[in-house]
Automatic annotation (TrEMBL), chains A, B:
Single GO MF annotation: glycosyltransferase activity
Enzyme Commission identifier(s): 6.3.4.21
Annotated GO biological process: NAD+ biosynthetic process via the salvage pathway
Domain of life: Bacteria
Processing and modification events after translation: Transiently phosphorylated on a His residue during the reaction cycle. Phosphorylation strongly increases the affinity for substrates and increases the rate of nicotinate D-ribonucleotide production. Dephosphorylation regenerates the low-affinity form of the enzyme, leading to product release.
Alphabetized UniProt keyword annotations: Glycosyltransferase, Ligase, Phosphoprotein, Pyridine nucleotide biosynthesis, Transferase
Protein's recorded name: Nicotinate phosphoribosyltransferase
Family named by the database record: Belongs to the NAPRTase family.
Species for this entry: Arthrobacter wenxiniae
């Protein structure tokens, strides 16, 4: 029952007026990107579709609503029978978005679309915020792998979703086991400072870890003195030592020192992982340091300053008494056009680089080859299309993200604040052919 | 399995070395408050205790860990039998905290305490961040009720936790139905713009809502023209109209205009609710406006600029081979004292106002009357103490929060950035008596 109280009172009043059964189109979109960001990353779609397919009001929920008198008996009866039976279409998970991109649309009765509002926005707003932050970190990290390890700095279920979103945006792996279990992503981790402190000496701790996990493990070397720890680690593990981890101090200087020390001891293949409160800027600042991988936590799971994507879910058109669709909008922003399904295209130039986000109402115009259609159908009459959910959905979303990033002009990869890297243009179907 | 990969690899290595069974004390605390905040609010404790009491590794989890070879057979066998059997004590939920307040301590074997780390920090870091933000909003709102309505701007399970944390910090109610169901808190809501747009006219929408929910409902009056909507609402509902809601525009000016209009139409008892992207500063700015209640969303659920409380969970002492506890700490910060249970007191002056947070190691010194002990035992040998969880826990936490706030000096209620409003002082037991 991830639903706001008012969704149900609206349902009750709409059932009363009869308008609950009007066919409607709701659209989720962001009016703007977070301050200074050049693009956003759609995430959460697969997770959302899994949830919508199972969205029901059970006995426990209905009893609560009845006891609290949240809604009347007619509404309770409707809720008891509810299962989403409409259509859902929109941007593929992992795809980039820009202001007013029609990211997800729900076509159903008003009543059904209304039930999904809160849940749909929760998922998309959270997961897209994390993926959008993660994507910038991946850009900053270049070819070096990033490991998501922020679970402890966000709510426990958010942690699973954040980890999933990070992997879609290009993270190599996560510390979150539940995410590994649910979505098949790679999990990683070795030991914390407490493990060293538990033992009577650092040497004992290292020995226990090496004996139990093999020389390929990564040893945490900054509990006491880094140089002494690296020497101990190499003495115990030999040249096969997998890696060392630095979690505090001046990472730039330490990475150089530790690399030189490891090399001087013959451990040229021992990797260096750094993990101390990194964000996209700290990662970029370490580009010239001999670091092999980054562990990222707090900044990632809190959206690097933008913890929510600020998407909204608006009724954009609905049937009138005659069954014909009419566009609707708050106040004077109404646009004089027939509502219904929107189309969206990414305009690509002759070099395959994106130059604009084209959005229009009505049917998709015939494609001239350079414009990439962005809208996919995820659910039809309540039935899920294959390939968007579960582990396969995550894997495909990560591929989609990498491919869409490759289309963006280079300015998108600058970390500095700026405008959306391509403009969103509204077009009439007839103007698309060029 | 809200657990980081490395908790399990540490467990494996510690089982191997035998140190996994050493008695240990881990402590959760925040080294600092979010930038500029004067105090923090402990939240999540009840929810956490419910989760720890049920924390198990089931077949699905164990199969995954085995298939991925995350840990060896000895460790899998240990996990299959795991149920937390130690002690947990700390600050009451709703209590205020300051830098280094010993918010929650776990006393058990290393292995058991290690299993709880990620989950414990997820819950406390998220919920305390939300409660800390919510408390400032409540201060800004004075005697006017605040309604939590941010579910759509955060992950769906975070939304339930955020709503719960907001109520602990003084919010009157929430839009989140699941929170109402789980924790017995009051839920509220009426209708959105989409409800008005669904109907052929605003008048039809108002009529439907009034017929279905009665004149005491709150009508949303800013879909088209506010003045016209208020006149329609009063014409349809009469003087019994419960309230009107404003969700856009210049709320300060509109609140004055709408109040004057309602009064001129005889609706002196119709309330005004405002709900447009409010934060603690916007609420404060409306203090002189004729507003009856505030609906708060995005800013609340994202922690008003501080989405995580940055608490850490550190091994502070553990038994050696002889069974005696020794204090441990990373690098040179080790303190020369015998570890174990910490005590904490809030020092109150003769007027009952807090002047310091006193923290010490060892047994609680005898109290002289003015110092309020802060540590409670929540779980003993794995058994929950009564009163901290469920709806009762939330109710008591809200009372605790209000009582603790009343003890703070006035400077705590200023929204401006500043230092923690009372200092944290480390004391030896012998120096406490004064």
């Amino acid at each position: 029952m991830f639903t706001d109280h008012y969704e149900l009172t609206m349902l009750q009043a709409a059932l009363h007026s009869g308008s609950a059964h009007r066919r409607s189109v709701f659209e989720a979109f962001a009016r703007r990107l977070p301050d200074g960001r050049r693009y956003g990353v759609v995430a959460g779609t697969g997770r959302l579709l899994e949830g919508i397919a199972e969205f029901r009001f059970g006995t426990r929920e209905l009893d609560f609503l009845a006891a609290r008198k949240v809604v009347n008996d007619e509404t309770l009866a409707w809720l008891a029978d509810f299962a989403f039976s409409g259509n859902i279409y929109g941007y593929a998970e992992g795809e980039l978005y820009f202001p007013n991109s029609p990211i997800l649309s729900v076509e159903s009765t008003f009543a059904e679309a209304c039930m999904l509002e809160t849940y749909l926005l929760s998922v998309l707003n959270h997961d897209s915020a994390i993926a959008s932050a993660a994507s910038r970190m991946i850009t900053a990290a270049g070819s070096r792998p990033c490991i998501e390890m922020g679970s402890r700095r966000t709510q426990e279920e958010s942690a699973v979703a954040a980890s999933r979103a990070a992997v879609i945006a290009g993270f190599h792996s996560t510390s979150n086991l539940e995410c590994g279990l649910r979505y098949g992503v790679l999990t990683q981790g070795t030991a914390a400072h407490s493990f060293t402190l538990l033992h009577d000496s650092e040497e004992e701790a290292f020995r226990a870890q090496l004996e139990s996990m093999g020389a390929g493990t990564t040893l945490l070397v900054d509990t006491y003195d880094v140089e002494a720890a690296v020497r101990k680690a190499v003495a115990l593990a030999g040249p096969a030592l997998g890696g060392v981890r630095l979690d505090s101090g001046d990472l730039l200087a330490q990475a150089h020192d530790v690399r030189a020390l490891l090399d001087s001891l013959g451990n040229v293949n021992t990797r260096i992982t750094v993990t101390s409160d990194l964000d996209e800027f700290a990662i970029a600042a370490l580009a010239a340091a001999p670091v092999d991988s980054y562990g990222v936590g707090t900044s990632l799971v809190t959206g690097a300053g933008a913890p929510t994507a600020s998407m909204v879910y608006k009724l954009v058109s609905r049937a009138g008494n005659d069954g014909d669709f009419v566009s609707v909008a708050k106040a004077a922003k109404n646009k004089a056009s027939v509502g219904g399904k929107k189309f969206a295209l990414r305009r690509l130039n002759e070099r395959g680089l994106a130059t604009a986000e084209l959005v229009g109402i009505g049917e998709l115009p015939e494609n001239d080859g350079n414009d990439r259609p962005l809208i996919h159908e995820f659910m039809h009459d309540g039935v899920l299309a294959p390939g968007w959910t579960g582990a396969e959905g995550v894997r495909r979303a990560a591929e989609r993200h990498a491919a869409s990033m490759a289309e963006l002009p280079g300015a998108a990869r600058r970390l500095q604040r700026g405008e959306p890297v391509i403009p969103t243009e509204y077009i009439q179907p007839s103007t698309v052919r060029n």
